[in-house]
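Batch job 17 of 40 flagged for manual review because the log was empty.
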Amino acid sequence: MTKNYDLVILGGGTGGYVAAIRASQLGLKTAIVEKDKLGGTCLHKGCIPSKALLRSAEVFKQTKEADQFGINTSDISLDFLKVQDRKEQIVSQLYQGVIGLVEKGLIDIYDGIGRVLGPSIFSPTAGTVSVEMKDGSDNEMLLSKNLIIATGSKPKLIENLKPDGTHILTSDEALNLKVLPKSIIIVGAGVIGVEWASMLADFDVNVTLVEYAEQILPTEDSAIAKEMQRLLKKKGIKIMTNAKVLSETVEKAHNVTIQVDYKNEKTTLTADQMLIAIGREPNTTEIGIENTDIQLEMSGSIRTNKDYQTKETHIYAIGDCIGGMQLAHVASHEGKHAVEHIAGNSPMHLNYHHIPTCIYSNPEVASVGLTETQAKDQGFQVKSGKVSFKAIGKALVYGESDGFVKIIADKKTNDLLGIHMIGPHVTELISEAGLAKVLDATPWEIGETIHPHPSLAEAMAEAALDVDGMKIHG
């Protein structure tokens, strides 16, 4: 059966369903094609379930350390099945909310696998979507004036280390563990690897973290990475940087053994399980790209212009499948921008230097803008300010005083270049930094903004004042 729409969206993840809702608000007849569940990776296999597990790990760790607050506890134990049940309840509640939002927008949902067709009897241009329905009914043919590809990404794998769901895992399988391992090797110390290392260590799992680059968190400011490494080691995590996993891997009945090139020597590592966390790659195969003139980058991501148009100008692409920052909040804003452009409006282009990034480990990390190395590489003369959370009363009250806030500015113009944080609840504090970047604030203006006392946000003010040597505390 053939149906006509103003807009069809291939993929119902965060970028896809947000774009669909905005399109509905603008009066466009819209459909979503989703092969799994609305909400996509973020809701079902990423952001939400992993943060639910991280929160349980945090509470477990805090409970074990309750005596420092004058609270006597005994017989503390972990019921990991209840931890998983809580995670599933949160995901289910949010999933029902997403369904409700889409239904409220009168958006049609097609449960099946969508593939983009080239010019055919259905349309003289590429972009018709053929949907192989999950219920086994006849394929649906969706003709639309415009198409948005929002197919997301999947875990990147290492050659010869195929996940089996038992010994070798990706984050997809790890999220559904029924029993925690006693030990685990995590390959990759980027955002995903560090979050899992922190979480599992707080659940009392013996963790070894293996990273190919010179530092963990390779995209973060070096000062942040150094502090995170110190604090992860404090948890008992073994960290190996400049380490390459070799192809020879031996799985055993109850554990996994791998060879690692570390410090120019072959080192053998053994653990109950191994988690591959080396990043994600775009889902751009088997969706019909070859039937169009759409161009792909070497990474497999879809090439677009600043309005997210592909070479087929009526076909747009957003989110993880175009590479870039691969964050849920980025995908949703890209989706809204694409829809505004389709509707004939003139939306502002996203400035990716204004977008905050967060790592929800314990401690948390958050940043916006350039690292100090990036700023210097781009020719800026930099000045910076830094304050430790040990100087912040609220952090001491919380019992979480590790970490700091660092602010980088242009010495010539006083413009903010980057704000980097590691410590308690910095994923909430970073929004002030993001607003400061958008408004082109100077460090002096942040420092002169009156922050309540006691609050963790005082660290932002003190670091800003320190850029010009004026901080009071610390």
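Reviewer: the log was empty due to a logging misconfiguration, but the result itself is present. The mean pLDDT is 95. Unflagging and moving on to job 18.
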